[in-house]
Design goal:
The chain is of the alpha/beta class. Helix content is 29%, strand content 28%. It is built from six helices and eleven strands. It has a six-stranded mixed sheet. Strands 8-7-9-6-10 form a five-stranded mixed sheet. The longest helix is centred in the C-terminal third of the chain and has 21 residues, at 204-224. The chain starts with 6 loop residues before the first strand and ends with a helix. The structure holds adenosine-5'-triphosphate and zinc ion (ZN).
Length: 225
């Protein structure tokens, strides 16, 4: 087991959030050597261990209390919260701060030549997505239903492959959609990276460290504004 007196922070190992997450921690003064392909990196100058994992695992690690803090996209966090609630659990965690990176939107997209006048156009249709619970929340709020086609990758090829009528996927520039003959028709969720903390009290030392980190993060983000 890891040393439980050290603050554990989970971040994405490699992907769209990893560079910005590492930079934020570094700018907070945490000296970490992330060069090696290690799961865990130990900070040299503070009692902090960094866990580098798939982003999808981060909400669960925080909710299950395996790590103290995590840096994660709100889209992945909210989907995990809704998934756990659907399973009858009551996931607990707190959002310490919205961060200034990882911005993207979860959007509905349809074949470029289709007509769209509102989400009712997609009522009862089949929609490919990696975010079935976020999509259901949106459709529920409109009093609509859809048939789900759950894909954890290559969502944008589903309509062309005849698997779905539309997709619900993350977009930042729209270039991927265009390359696949799709058109963004509605935004259902806007996301950024957030810093989250597990439920339950931290030890006095850990809490003091988190407070210090929060002050530094505030300074880092303000300096970038
Ligand atoms: P992992 O291997 O860790 O599971 P992944 O392939 O699921 O990685 P990434 O593509 O690296 O995930 O995206 C991680 C997060 O980055 C997304 O969940 C989202 O919050 C954010 N993000 C920012 N811009 C984009 C974008 N254009 N497309 C997808 N995600 C984006
Ligand atoms: Zn992922």
């Amino acid at each position: 087991m890891l040393d439980n007196t050290r603050l554990r922070i989970a971040m994405q190992k490699s992907g769209r959030l990893s560079d910005d997450s590492r930079e934020l921690l570094t700018r907070c003064g945490i000296k970490i050597n992330l060069q090696q392909q290690r799961l865990i990196a130990f900070a040299e100058n503070m009692p902090i261990d960094i866990l580098r994992v798939r982003d999808d695992d981060i909400p669960g690690l925080v909710m299950d209390g395996v790590v103290d803090l995590g840096i994660i996209g709100e889209n992945v966090l909210e989907e995990e919260v809704l998934t756990r609630r659907a399973q009858g659990e009551d996931p607990q965690l707190s959002i310490l701060r919205r961060l200034d990176f990882g911005g993207c939107r979860l959007s509905l997209a349809m074949p470029a030549d289709s007509v769209y006048t509102g989400p009712e156009c997609l009522d009862t249709k089949r929609i490919a997505t990696s975010y079935p619970h976020l999509l259901k929340k949106y459709f529920d709020s409109k009093g609509l239903t859809f048939k789900s086609c759950l894909l954890n990758g290559s969502v944008e090829v589903a309509p062309r492959a005849g698997l779905s009528d539309a997709i619900c996927d993350l977009v930042s520039t729209g270039a991927t959609l265009e390359a696949n003959g799709l058109r963004e028709v509605d935004v259902i969720y806007r996301s950024k990276a957030v810093l989250i903390q597990r439920a339950g009290e931290l030890s006095e030392d850990k809490q003091a460290l988190v407070n210090r980190l929060m002050t530094r993060i505030q300074g880092v983000i303000q300096a970038r504004e």
